[in-house]
Amino acid sequence: MNDGESGRRIVDDRFELQTRLGGGGMGTVWRARDLLLHRAVAVKEVRPADPGLAEYDPDSARMLRERVLREARALARVQHPNVVTIHHIVDGGPGTYPWIVMELVEGGSLADRLARGPMAPAEAARIGRGVLDALRAAHAAGVQHRDVKPANVLLRTDGRPVLTDFGIAAVREATALTATGSIIGTPDYMAPERVTGGDGGPAADLWSLAMMLYVAVEGHHPLQRGTTLATLAAVLHEEVPPPKQAGSLTDVLARVLVRDPAARPGAEAIDALLATAAQDTGGPGTTSYPLAPPRPPSAPLPSETVVDRPGRPRRAVIASVAAGAVLVGGVTWLALSGGDKGDSPSGSAGPTRHTTARQSPTPTKPSASTAPGGTSKPATGMLTPTAIRKALKAIEDETGRKTFGAFNVYPEYVSADAMVPGSKTRFDSYTYRPATGVDKGIIKGTLTSGSTPVSLKNYNWDAVPALLATGRKKLHVDKPTLTYVSIQPPSTLFDEPASIRVYLTNDYGETGYLQATPQGKVTKLYPADA
């Protein structure tokens, strides 16, 4: 790292550090500018909490450097839209600490989202499917993540999840960095078999995923106790209590959160269960990554804030213990990874006081007006017939595409999955904003089985205001903070016709929706208190 003109901090004569995004015991993540390719990136600066580590404990310093290099190599082996992309690594050789250059994910982390309250089961199921897809890709490449938790799931600005921080990932043929009898991970989300010193295999990552979804819908961790040792004891010896708010997710949580890894369903079966959970609760989206947008934050999180809520970032630890004797005697804990200071995880440009509206175009909380009777009514923004028609025309004109696998209208932007010409299954994602027009997203995917692309030519957009009014009146969502319209193509798998859906949700996770025909006739109501 060198200082450029006017005191600019430039790494490897190429990456200009701009804004601190987050940090913890293991270093700092920066928003940076790639001066060669003229794009924004995230740069992970690895620094131990004790700067004298290399001098008095060279073996630990060497282990840290090797761990960082392994993280980069593990990430490079997994190419998937739900896994953070690594662009470059800067390594000065032995005695130095590397820098990892990654894609910049602008929507904050799942931990940030959960700090504002629990999720509806369908929303959690959709995020769970995206993370599961990432894990399946990693497992196929021989990589186990070993630290799946809300802080390590980033959200793109359209709500799609991205798994990050493979710093303690185990690669099947290169696991020497895990000392004999040691366990690496975050205690709250660690599978029982890993607590006792075993490798655990892919099934252990699935436990962590299920526990994360439990926390997402329940708003608390069922086995978290006052100390780390007490939490580990609960993971080893206590049953996971049945969830109360999981709804359609109840079955998958009950089947995965069992101590015997051989008794857990495989990834394919879990994906089917999550797909059912999302569909049964009426979640938007029909693609292979049918994820809702991030809920608008109540306020930006300061860059130094520790989020003391369920799902908060916690310190990953290494427990030097003999297998089977975790809680019997002398346990020594050594922090190995960040997150304890917890502003934002690696690669995230989540809500900090440095984030500008242009840098993070996540929908902000709509302003409210007072409707008759004193109820709060969200501002419409893009949710008008004229705005929807303008957005649709702009996307069609820009892309030349007339059929869609998804079309979602939020107060501040429209997202669409436009079908690839000549294909009935493949799509590219696009976003329209009034100020910037049409932007192509990085997501390329295929529709889920049974979904049929739809033309929006004959949809009655003039019915949208009446549908919004019906939703505010009959869906019983108190003080909604997000209202959006989702166009649902027909599905032969679930025998569902094409429809327009209106969703209302609030900061307490209460969500209701209505379903209407493309011409605007209401056919189903799903109030929040049903």
From TrEMBL:
<dbReference type="InterPro" id="IPR000719">
    <property type="entry name" value="Prot_kinase_dom"/>
</dbReference>
<feature type="compositionally biased region" description="Low complexity">
    <location>
        <begin position="360"/>
        <end position="372"/>
    </location>
</feature>
<protein>
    <recommendedName>
        <fullName>non-specific serine/threonine protein kinase</fullName>
        <ecNumber>2.7.11.1</ecNumber>
    </recommendedName>
</protein>
<feature type="region of interest" description="Disordered">
    <location>
        <begin position="339"/>
        <end position="384"/>
    </location>
</feature>
<feature type="binding site">
    <location>
        <position position="44"/>
    </location>
    <ligand>
        <name>ATP</name>
    </ligand>
</feature>
<keyword id="KW-0418">Kinase</keyword>
<dbReference type="Pfam" id="PF00069">
    <property type="entry name" value="Pkinase"/>
</dbReference>
<feature type="region of interest" description="Disordered">
    <location>
        <begin position="279"/>
        <end position="309"/>
    </location>
</feature>
<feature type="compositionally biased region" description="Pro residues">
    <location>
        <begin position="291"/>
        <end position="300"/>
    </location>
</feature>
<keyword id="KW-0723">Serine/threonine-protein kinase</keyword>
<dbReference type="InterPro" id="IPR017441">
    <property type="entry name" value="Protein_kinase_ATP_BS"/>
</dbReference>
<dbReference type="GO" id="GO:0016301">
    <property type="term" value="F:kinase activity"/>
</dbReference>
<dbReference type="InterPro" id="IPR008271">
    <property type="entry name" value="Ser/Thr_kinase_AS"/>
</dbReference>
<keyword id="KW-0547">Nucleotide-binding</keyword>
<feature type="compositionally biased region" description="Low complexity">
    <location>
        <begin position="339"/>
        <end position="351"/>
    </location>
</feature>
<feature type="domain" description="Protein kinase">
    <location>
        <begin position="15"/>
        <end position="274"/>
    </location>
</feature>
<dbReference type="InterPro" id="IPR011009">
    <property type="entry name" value="Kinase-like_dom_sf"/>
</dbReference>
<keyword id="KW-0808">Transferase</keyword>
<keyword id="KW-0067">ATP-binding</keyword>
